[in-house]
Amino acid sequence: MDTPIEIERKYVIEIPELDMLSGLDGYTKSRIVQTYLISHPHVTHRVRRRDYGDAVVYTETKKVRIDKISAFEDEREIDEEEYSSLLALSDPAANPVEKTRHTVPYCGRTLEIDVYPAWKRCCIMEIELPSREALPTIPSYIKILLDVTGDKRYSNASMARSFPPEPGID
Asked: How far apart are CA 154 and CA 158, in angstroms?
């Protein structure tokens, strides 16, 4: 299969100092709205609108889970017209997921830190890895509260159906 495999770890973390993050080399911030579409069983199909200040990027993504850490991922950029057309296929049982994504390069990887409006002190961080065996390097300014890799409750597709309460971790 020519579809790339996405291998990633996912964590609930304490929201880091966002002003500090924004001062790091390579930092970007974007607003994301992900809408999940009606799809075949075992396939996650979504469209995304991602605003980078003045620029807007639209993508369509289809994922098929391989195991709890990896998935086949077919993603392509689309134009606004196709995005609007695909929105007609929205899953009525799923709400759009809104988040602010802060990306930071670290040790050859990119940390994707998603802050959700429903949570006040926690957020989700994802790190793509080159292999299932690779272990991520976490910077000292990130406080991991919970490893949720493979926990379906914290997949954006599940969160679109039922957003979990903020973890009550001390």
From this structure: 7
**Is-contact 12 34, C-beta < 8 A?**
no
Q: How many residues would you count in the chain?
A: 170
**Tokens for 124?**
């989700």
Q: Rounded distance, CA 24 to CA 21, Å?
A: 5
Are 121 and 14 spatial neighbours (Cβ–Cβ below 8 Å)?
Answer: yes
- pLDDT of res. 3: 60
CATH class, range 5-161:
mainly beta
Q: Which two tokens stand for residue 164?
A: 């979990």
Burial string for 4-39 (b: 16+ CB within 10 Å, else e) reads eebbbbbbbbebbeeeebeeeeeeebbebebbbbee
User: Of the candidates 25, 65, 26, which has an alpha carbon nearest to the alpha carbon of residue 42?
Assistant: 65
pLDDT at site 1: 42
Give pLDDT tens digits for 129-144: 999 899 999 999 999 9
Q: How do 28-36 and 70-78 pair as beta strands?
A: unpaired
